[in-house]
Description:
Order of helices and strands: HHHHEEHEHEHEHHEE
Bound molecules: S-adenosylmethionine
Strand order of the largest sheet: 3-2-1-4-5-7-6
Structural class: alpha/beta
InterPro entries: SAM-dependent_MTases_sf, Thiol_S-MT
Protein name: S-adenosyl-L-methionine-dependent methyltransferase
Largest sheet: 7 strands, mixed
Strand content: 15-25%
Amino acid sequence: MKLSAALAVLVELKGCLQFGFVPTLRAILRSPILLLRPRAISRIFMNHVWSVYGDGIDANSRYVKEGLVSANAQGVVLDVGAGYGHTARYLDHAKVTKYIALEPNVLMHSEIRQRANAAGWTEGEGTLVILPYGAEDVATIMSALGGPHSVDTIISILSLCSVPDPKKTICMLVDLVLKPGGQLLFYEHVLSPRVDVGWWQQFWTPLWRHAMDGCCLDRPTHEWIKQMDVWSKGELWGLPDESEEHLWWHRVGKFVKAG
Ligand SMILES: C[S@@+](CC[C@H](N)C(=O)[O-])C[C@H]1O[C@@H](n2cnc3c(N)ncnc32)[C@H](O)[C@@H]1O
C-alpha cells in the first residue's frame, strides 16, 4: 500500500482541525462545563466540520444516492444519522410519504429542517419528522413512531460507522422498526478486504473515532448486513472508480426484508 494512501487520515484530520478546532475551543471557553461532557464537545466539533464538508461530500456522492435512494426509497423513510438532511433532496414525492430524520446531534437539526423544507418535506404538513435519538435507542424510536414495524425504508448514508454496537443496532432496527417487505438502503465506508488496508484502518480508528464523533474506519458493516437471515433478496456493489487502497472504502447495498 502506498504511504500516501496509508497516511491519508492525517491529511483529513488536518483539514477537520483547521475548520473545527477554533469554534469548538470558543464554545468550551464560553461554557467550560463542556469539559465534563466529551461527547458534547465531539458533537460541536463534528457540526462545524460537517458545515464545511457536508455539501461537498453530498455533491461527490450524488450519483450513488440517485441510484440508491431516488431509485428505491418509498413509503415512510427513516434516515439514520441524517446529518444536515442531504438525503431529503433525493426522495421522490411520488413514492415517499414521510421523511423521518434520526439525528442525535441536535446542533444539526436546523440544517435538516432547512434542507428538508427546501425539498418539500415539512413538519406542518406531517411529511417531516426530526428525532433527536441515536439509532441504538430503538425502543424510544419505536415509541416516537407510534409502534413497531412502521417504516418502509431505512436509509443509512455514512452513519453506521458512528453507531455504538452497530451489529446489534442494525438487527434491532430491521427486526423491530422495518415493516415486513421493507428495505434497507445503505452507502457506508467499511473494513477493506485487503489485509494491508484493513491494518491501517484498524490502526487509525482509535484516533479518528475520538476526533470524529465515534466514526470507525474498520467496521465490516456490509458483511454484518449480508449475514442477517431476514432478507428475501439483497444486492451489494462498490464505487466504479474507487481505489482499493482507499481507507474510506465504500459499499452500497439494497436489502429487502422477507414479507
Ligand atoms: C458522516 S455524517 C453523515 C450524515 C448524513 N447521513 C449524510 O450522508 O449527509 C454521520 C452522522 O451520523 C450521526 N450519528 C452519530 N452517532 C449516531 C448514532 N448513534 N445514531 C444515529 N446517528 C448518529 C452524526 O451525528 C452525523 O450526523
